[in-house]
Design a protein that fits this description.
CATH superfamily of the largest domain: P-loop containing nucleotide triphosphate hydrolases
CATH topology of the largest domain: Rossmann fold
Number of strands: 13
Distance between the termini: 28 Å
Number of domains: 4
Helix content: 40-55%
Shape: rod-shaped
CATH architecture of the largest domain: 3-Layer(aba) Sandwich
Length: 561
């Protein structure tokens, strides 16, 4: 059987609504964690300054005709940014700022130097826990780079100027000797060299002055802005992370959840039609082990069982089953409550109904009708009482007792036998069921669950039809798969299934329940708990005249069986 998959937006929204608490919890935890981290984070402030990288170099000074392309200039700016973010520059910046409690490495870890892609500017940024110190460090960092880069730019020029001055002095001395020896015309060639050297000396001196101011601080750091903790940003990130984690957890939980929540899933897996959905009964009914058909005539429970009775009649049109067993996959799915209320609903509709408790391991019907300790089918099988003596007539509230009125007789389980499966398989049970089928219109049997024990499978050989009860939100997909396999081996006709504890809407509020013209309940006079009804002959069998009547005090159902 293929797994049920989410295929529509409504399916996903239904899953999200059902597990919204996971998403909310994940968001709350993530946001709370982000707040805690932000509150414990040391405050930090960031300041910036800019340096303009000059285009001059020794090459351009010596060869003024040289032109620097934009790509080469951008490479120089990028190289300047890398040079600035070094330990040597950081050490000089700390010395200029007078900061002694930071190492150059710590400064580099809390700073950045970024080259512009479109201009000759590089930006210095320093982050520190004190805003005034962040401002001072940023400005002095830029100054330290400018001083060092300009110093290195002119590092080779003083030597060249000194050598050129020495050469010029030598030429002048040579020219003076030649003039003294040969007159005014002597030394003209050396004089030409002298003029060229003087011109070059002037160029080098001008270049030295220019390179000394090649890189300049274009903008000092004026103030520092707070960058840590960024509480608003952290909370927003926490919300987003929590949302993502929550959705992932919802998907994971849904993938691992093997519960079946919708009637369509059950119908597809069992291959059976849905007869009705039974909502969870009120707490008052569950606590008192009361039946909705007897004690809550105006509630949605009563309407649900009426609907079950009608749909069961339609499902049974062609099969015409007279003995119908009600079972489930496991315990605690509501089969005993369902079969008891269905019996009352059929009796109210004018049927002669016999309700037999054949769940001999954990019987429960005796609690609904105050028959605890009364003889039952096991006493009949042992020959301790007759069938008529073990059957109890249950008064139906509102029945007029006319010829068309229905009736309800209950055959309890009696004492628990040592081996229930052997008793159910015995011919005595078969004879009892055949006898009851001749007397009544419908014989309903409450049987043990199919999966834990073999009682239900054995009983399916002795009945005409089967009705399966499935409890929503508790039954698992593997359980349904196994239940389908067991049902396929049962010879009795499968009439359908009932979904109990269902939260799927049935529309009762629109059709007269829940505020739109709700019917008025017919009051039923209460009887003292110890009062007993007058002996009523079971069905049409005159041999029952000697049997006891049903106790007047009646209990009601719970959804736990």
């Amino acid at each position: 059987m293929a797994e049920q998959r989410l295929t529509t937006l409504s399916d996903y929204l239904a899953v999200l609504r059902r597990r919204l608490w996971i998403v909310v919890l994940a968001i709350v935890i993530a946001v709370a964690a982000a707040y805690v981290v932000s509150s414990r984070e040391t405050p930090a402030y960031k300041a910036t300054s800019q340096v303009n990288v000059g285009a001059n170099s020794i090459q351009t000074i010596l060869n003024p005709a040289t032109r620097i392309s934009s790509s080469v200039m951008q490479q120089q700016v990028a190289s300047a940014a890398q040079t600035a973010h070094t330990t040597a520059i950081a050490r000089q910046a700390l010395q200029l700022a007078g900061v002694n409690d930071l190492t150059p490495k710590q400064l580099l870890d809390e700073s950045s130097v970024t080259a512009s892609d479109t201009s000759t500017f590089i930006t210095f940024a320093v982050t520190d826990r004190f805003p005034d110190r962040a401002t001072r460090l940023t400005t002095d960092y830029a100054r330290a780079y400018v001083n060092e880069s300009n110093r290195q730019a002119v590092a080779g020029l003083p030597k060249k100027i000194h050598q050129l001055n020495a050469k010029i002095a030598a030429l002048r001395a040579q020219i003076a000797r030649e003039v003294k020896q040969g007159g005014q015309s002597a030394g003209s060639a050396d004089n030409t060299f002298l003029q060229a050297d003087l011109k070059q000396l002037q160029t080098l001196q001008n270049g030295r002055d220019s390179l000394a101011n090649n890189n300049k601080v274009a903008q000092n750091a004026e103030d520092a802005s707070k960058v840590r903790p960024a509480t608003t940003r952290n909370l927003a990130m926490g919300f987003g992370i929590g949302l993502v984690i929550g959705l992932v957890l919802v998907s994971l939980a849904e993938a691992l959840d093997t519960r079946v929540r919708h009637s369509d899933d059950v119908s597809a897996r069992l291959g059976l039609p849905l007869l009705t959905r039974i909502p969870i009964p009120p707490r008052s009914l569950r606590k008192a082990s009361s039946l909705g058909m007897l004690d809550d005539e105006s509630g949605i429970q009563t309407e649900a069982y009426r609907k079950l009775r009608i749909n069961l009649d339609f499902a049974n049109l062609s099969i015409k089953a007279r003995t119908i067993m009600v079972t489930s996959a496991t315990e605690q799915e509501g089969k005993s409550t369902t079969v008891a209320n269905l019996a009352v609903a059929l009796a109210r509709a004018g049927r002669r109904v016999v309700l037999v408790d054949l769940d001999l391991r954990k019987p429960f019907l005796d609690r609904f009708f105050d028959l605890t300790g009364r003889p039952g089918i096991t006493d009949v099988a042992l020959g301790h009482v007759t069938l008529d003596q073990a059957m109890w007539s249950i008064p139906i509230p509102g029945a007029d007792g006319g010829p068309q009125a229905g009736s309800l007789h209950v055959l309890p389980s009696g004492p628990m036998p040592p081996n229930p499966a052997d008793l159910i398989e015995s011919s005595v049970v078969s004879e009892v069921l055949l006898d009851l089928a001749e007397r009544a219109d419908v014989v309903l049997l409450d049987s043990a669950p199919l999966l834990p024990v073999s009682d239900g499978v054995i009983l399916s050989n002795k009945v005409d039809g089967m009705l399966v009860v499935v409890r929503a939100s508790t039954v698992r997909r593997p359980v349904l798969t196994e239940l389908q396999r067991v049902l396929a081996a049962c010879p009795a006709a499968k009439l359908g299934f009932v979904l109990t504890g269902s939260d799927e809407a049935e529309g009762y509020g629109y059709y007269g329940y829940g505020g739109y013209g709700a019917p008025t309940a017919v009051p039923v006079p209460a009887r003292p708990p110890q009062e007993q009804a007058a002996p009523v002959p079971p069905l049409a069998n005159p041999a029952a005249n000697g049997s006891e009547g049903v106790p007047g005090g009646q209990s009601s159902p719970t959804q736990s069986h």
